[in-house]
Design a protein that fits this description.
Blueprint: H1 2-23, H2 31-38, H3 49-72, E1 89-97, H4 101-109, H5 116-127, E2 133-134, E3 156-157, H6 160-179, E4 187-196, E5 203-205, E6 211-213, E7 219-227
Antiparallel strand pairs: 1-7, 2-3, 4-7, 5-6
Helix pairs in contact: 1-2, 5-6
Family: Belongs to the universal ribosomal protein uL22 family.
Protein name: Large subunit ribosomal protein L17e
GO cellular component, one term: cytosolic large ribosomal subunit
């Protein structure tokens, strides 16, 4: 008796699944949930017929809600801050940058608030070693240099790899600004942020059969810059009579 009921329910569920597939031909991704519901593995008794019909008719609404949620939350890049006027700003970001996090942190924070041209000039001078990047936060065992006096610091370095990466990121942001019709000579860096990325693990083989960690410290960098507002002189007040 139990086997006959099982065959009867399986036949009914097969008809329901086929009917749902033909009734809603556009919902191809939803056919797999239908089959999973109509063929429960945990219990021998299937779901009631009325509940299956309700589930089939309510699935387009569920798919519509999921689609709207994906469209509204579909942003390619997430930034911790937003510019005040997005039409007058340009963004740039790089993920999993193969540069040391601490060096890139100091290299990026020094240009926060600078104009685009001044930041590019600073980085080129750092590559020529006529100016340095001040190390304010991560300055443990960092050598002292006289070039750090202009920043009110005593320690500084010339992190070439981080500087080259930041120059490339600034070039990307400049290209985005030109694409939006903005004047690159008036762009000012308003936001720079460097975050730690997942460490990439490698191994180094030591003496006596030991294996030690050999990891790198990549980082994520994001920035945006905005066009500087022009100062409008106040109108001269009329002389009092």
């Amino acid at each position: 008796m139990w086997q006959n009921k099982t065959k009867h329910y399986n036949t009914q569920n097969t008809a329901l699944s086929l009917w749902a597939s033909f009734l809603i031909p556009n919902l191809v991704p939803m056919r797999i949930p239908f089959l999973c519901v109509l063929y429960p593995n945990a219990c021998n008794s299937p779901l009631p017929f009325a509940f299956c019909v309700l589930l089939i008719f309510s699935s387009p609404l569920f798919l519509l809600i999921i689609t709207i949620h994906k469209e509204t939350s579909k942003t390619m890049v997430h930034y911790s801050r937003k510019p005040q006027v997005s039409s007058k700003s340009s963004k740039a970001k790089v993920s999993d940058l193969r540069c040391h996090y601490k060096n890139t942190y100091e290299t990026a924070n020094v240009i926060n608030g600078m104009s685009l041209r001044k930041a590019q000039q600073l980085y080129r001078q750092v590559l020529a070693k006529t100016r340095c990047i001040p190390f304010k936060h991560y300055n443990g065992k960092t050598g002292r240099t006289a070039q750090a006096k202009e920043w009110g610091q005593t320690k500084g370095r010339w992190p070439r790899k981080s500087v080259v990466a930041m120059l490339s990121l600034l070039k990307n942001a400049e290209a985005n600004a030109i694409e939006k019709g903005l004047d690159a000579n008036k762009m000012v860096i308003k936001h720079v942020q460097v975050d730690q990325a997942a460490r990439m693990r490698r191994r180094t083989f030591r003496a006596h059969g030991r294996i030690g960690p050999y990891m790198c410290s990549p980082c994520h960098v994001q920035l945006f810059m905005s066009e500087k507002k022009q100062r409008v002189p106040a109108p001269k007040s009329a002389p009092k009579k």
